[in-house]
Amino acid sequence: MTNAAVETGAPVETVAELVAQSREAQAVIAGYSQEQVDALVKVVGKVVFDNAEELARMAVDESRLGVYEDKILKNKGKSRTIWNNLKGVKSIGIIGHDEEKNLHLVAKPIGVVGAVTPCTNPVVTPMCNAMFALKGGNAIVVAAHPSVQKMSEYLVSLWHAEFDKLGAPRNLIQVVKQGSIEKTNELMKLADVVVATGGMAMVKAAYSSGKPSFGVGAGNVQCIFDRDIDFNAAAEKVVAGAAFDNGIICSSEQSVIAHEDDYDTVIEALLATGKVAYFDNPETVEQFRKALYNEDGVMHREVIGQSSQIIGQRAGVEIADGVRVILLKAEGIGREDVLCKEKLCSVLSTFKYNTFDEALHIAQSNLNYEGKGHSCSIHSDNEDHIKQAGLELTVSRLVVNQPSSLSAGGSFFNGFAPTTTLGCGSWGNNSISENLDWKHMVNISRVGLPIADAVQPEDEVIWA
After folding, report:
1. In angstroms, rounded to a whole number, what is the distance separating the alpha carbons of residues 322 and 308?
2. Cβ contacts of 174 within 8 Å, gap of 6 or more
3. What is the pTM of this model?
4. Residue 340 pairs with which residues in a beta bridge?
5. Where are the chain's structural domains?
6. pLDDT tens across 84-101, in order?
7. In this prediction, what percent of the chain has a pLDDT beyond 90?
8. Regarding the domain delimited by 222-408, which CATH topology (the fold level of the hierarchy) does it fall under?
9. Biggest CA pair distance of the chain
């Protein structure tokens, strides 16, 4: 692999120049047909799919976060599901007609999308943002996290090579060179719409930019084990989700909430996977607590996306090879224990409940501490309990009987829109409470025609 495709020694364009070039490129595709637009969207995903191994290697080597093999799966999985969800969908021109209201729906591009992307998902997040932007006929400028600058520029160069083959403007996708906070803030002010995926400070800056923005909130996925289920099957799913990419995904499982009569059985099922270490000794748990957070309850950067063995070393506890997930018995719920917060690594806190109402109370208390509005997970065969959780928990997604980190962002096996940006609604100070999709990257004009044979109801009927 070589980065030869990335230009060196060339003058670095200012953010204003990048946005101006994006506007010129976007004007070129303003006359593109649906087929031409979809060809662009497809190659963006296909480049990541075809180069999944190389891009995963670069992402891990440059960021020092996550797991190479899991990033390959992520690159292939996200490109596959997103394109499958977008292909054949009408997004250019007249996209629909409401027969009952006699409305034509016309999709129109927003213009230039400014996308701020994180070091945790440095390949699939810009890919996802670019596919959605192009699907709506927009151009996009990516401000990547500085810790993955080289990989980000290389990825964009691969897309440019494919655009050349299609005769499309390269500047439909651009990346900010020599990225910085100042350049990112400038991009957010100059773009027509902002997609911000990353830390809360950056998301807040996006919402303060004066432009329409789509951000995300913190994750802290609470995982409830209901009674009378196959605990071994549920344990396999939870471990698969929590271990994936060293727990770096915002929708990764962060807790195990089990009935007090089933607690030991649930822990045994988790240990039986051969990938879990469990600690309930208060002194040992405290060692991990200090290894994960500082005295102010802020997560140490050094643990983010790291293996269980590295986290064990920081805590002074030896973790056997092959262990992917660490379980720690919490001493309280919500603000009573810092372990109830998001951890961004494969460490889960465990809790006991007596009634299902108490299980929901534990989950909600932890969400109130951090992660309100994002996602929760439940493993249950009780339809009433699933509905109750859906009604009571303040989350935008309730993932049922699936590995949360592999499902909340959409999959072939549920109805969530495939994405890398998961809105958290007003609970998480976000503008949307659903998965970001192409439909958020267009304006819709509604052409209202008279409704034939429509009559105004009598007042007595209206106010009855």
Report:
1. 9
2. 18, 21, 22, 139, 140, 141, 142, 156
3. 0.93
4. none
5. 15-216+434-447, 222-408
6. 999 999 999 999 999 999
7. 91
8. Aldehyde Dehydrogenase; Chain A, domain 2 (3.40.309)
9. 78
pLDDT of 10 reads 58
CB contact at 8 A, 425 and 216:
no
Beta strands 276-279; 173-175: pairing state: unpaired
Residues tagged active-site = 250
Interatomic CA distance for residues 115 and 102, integer angstroms = 36
The pLDDT value recorded for residue 1 is 35
Query: Residues 412-425: pLDDT tens digits?
Result: 999 999 999 999 99
Q: What is the mean pLDDT of the chain?
A: 94
Q: Which helix (H) or strand (E) holds 420?
A: none
Task: Please name the helix (run of DSSP H) or strand (run of DSSP E) that holds residue 446, with its range, or none.
Answer: strand 442-448
What number is the average pLDDT over the span 62-81? Answer: 97
pLDDT tens digits, residue range 39-59? Answer: 999 999 999 999 999 999 999
CB burial class (10 A; 0-12, 13-18, 19+) of residue 436?
buried
Report helix, strand or coil for 282.
helix
CATH number of the domain located at residue range(s) 15-216+434-447 in this protein:
3.40.605.10
| Alpha-carbon gap, residue 214 to 197, rounded angstroms | 8
Cα distance between residue 305 and residue 242, in whole Å: 11
For residue 36, the number of C-alpha atoms closer than 13 Å in the C-beta half-sphere is 14
Please name the amino acid found at residue 378.
Answer: I
Closest CA relative to residue 424, chosen from 229, 215, 232, 226: 215
Model confidence pLDDT, tens digit, residues 264-294: 999 999 999 999 999 999 999 999 999 999 9
What's the per-residue H, E or C state across 99-118? CCCCEEEEEEECCEEEEEEC
Q: Is 396 helix (H, G, I), strand (E, B) or coil?
A: strand
Residue 4 pLDDT greater than 60, yes or no: no
CB under 8 Å to 281, separation ≥6 — which residues? none
